[in-house]
Design goal:
The chain contains twelve helices and eleven strands. The chain is α/β, with parallel strands linked by helices and 381 residues long. Helix 2 links the parallel strand 2 (47-52) and strand 3.
């Protein structure tokens, strides 16, 4: 089977409000950073994938605003709507198709110019559910309650995710919200939607990330040592929020199993060295770890208490600070992929973990984790 590798990464700093930057400005910065990282010019890129959302950008054909800044002129260009991991998936298939050897993938988001409650309310079924006025936060609050009821996970265990990830962010220069907080601080922060306090929730963020994916035949021609894609899969569950057991994530379990099988991983608990998990809310880090088999069922909170997911623990999770420390919605998955690439290369700086040969990245689309995309990246081919 042909292989693909990530050979370049670039990103802007994640900020609350990039008031001076347009979408194109952010993309221009991230793309040029990725090209410099790979030792490439735009002439070395065969095709471009932009990842954006008409809803979040407030315009139709949102990809058109960043085409030129992505270097798409005179190239084949396509667009994907949703989390950046899905854009990367499409970019990888392009590089593996035989038609294009190198693919540039971008993802951008400016939450500061959006009203997230209105945007995510539109994700609900327009006939039966949307009129209830729910949004992503209230949907995930329902899911958090369901998960806590099934697993007996406590608010204190959820709060520890926030403490850990905001603390990790101090060592990541692109993170938006490094904070020294306690479990008590999280539990005393404003209640947004029971049981989710303000510090259980990721912030409003602006940012852009770009990665370059290459076919194995050209991956070694450029500056960076390739980080290989060993396994990747995505899977979706029912669209209707009430048609699935929201205390579980069957689509994530299946996507993870498929990615593990492709990568030849038999025991993910011992074979994964570092993970960037989609922690838009604290409970999600714990829930997703269990559903991917990286923690025993109903045990992630207890393992967190023992320090197993800390920087020095058995499996460092969200060493970058995760999305709780900065969540540019559409670009989030590409940031996570870039962080794992840096960890595997050994150039993550102050938030480098002690050992990182094999890493896992997870991306999410849809209400309460309707769809999941799981990547296994590795130092070796």
């Amino acid at each position: 089977m042909d292989r693909a590798a990530i050979i370049g990464i670039g990103m802007t700093k994640i900020e609350k409000n990039k008031v001076r930057d347009t979408f194109a400005d952010m993309v221009w910065e991230a793309v040029n950073s990725a090209l410099d990282d790979a030792g490439m010019t735009i002439n070395d890129i065969d095709n471009v994938i932009t990842t954006s959302s008409d809803f979040w950008d407030g315009r139709t054909i949102s990809c058109m605003a960043v085409g030129d800044a992505s270097g798409a002129a005179h190239k084949n260009v396509s667009c994907v709507e949703g989390d950046g991991t899905y854009g990367a998936f499409y970019g990888m298939t392009r590089s593996l198709s035989g038609s294009y050897k190198t693919t540039l993938v971008t993802g951008h988001s400016k939450g500061s110019q959006s009203v997230s409650s209105l945007i995510t309310n539109s994700a609900f079924d327009p006939i039966y559910e949307r009129e209830l006025g729910m949004d992503m936060i209230t949907a995930c609050a329902m899911q958090a309650n369901s998960y806590m009821h099934r697993t007996k996970t406590t608010p204190e265990q959820m709060a520890m995710v926030s403490v850990k990830n905001h603390g990790n962010a101090f060592k990541n220069p692109v993170a938006q919200l490094p904070m020294k907080i306690s479990v008590d601080d999280v539990l005393k922060s404003e209640m947004i939607a029971d049981p989710l306090h303000k510090l259980d929730c990721s912030p409003v963020s602006d940012g852009c990330c770009a990665i370059i994916i290459a076919h194995e035949s050209v991956a070694a021609k450029f500056k960076q040592k390739p980080v290989w894609v060993k396994g990747v899969s995505f899977c979706a569950d029912s669209f209707f929020f009430g048609d699935r057991d929201i205390s579980r994530a069957k689509s994530l379990t299946r996507a993870a199993k498929n990615a593990y099988a492709m990568a030849g991983i038999n025991d993910p608990k011992s074979e994964i060295d570092v993970a960037e998990i989609y922690d838009a809310f604290t409970y999600q880090e714990l829930m997703w770890l269990e559903e991917m088999g990286l923690a025993n069922d109903a045990a992630a909170g207890k393992l967190l208490e023992k320090g197993e997911f800390n920087m020095e623990g058995r499996l460092p999770v969200n060493a970058s600070g995760g999305l709780l420390s900065g969540h540019p919605v559409i670009a989030a998955g590409l940031y996570s992929m870039s962080e794992v690439v840096k960890q595997i290369r050994g150039d993550a700086g102050e938030h480098q973990v002690k050992k990182a040969k094999t890493g896992l990245v997870q991306g999410v689309n849809g209400l309460g984790g309707q769809s999941h995309c799981v990547w296994i990246l590795d130092k070796d081919k």
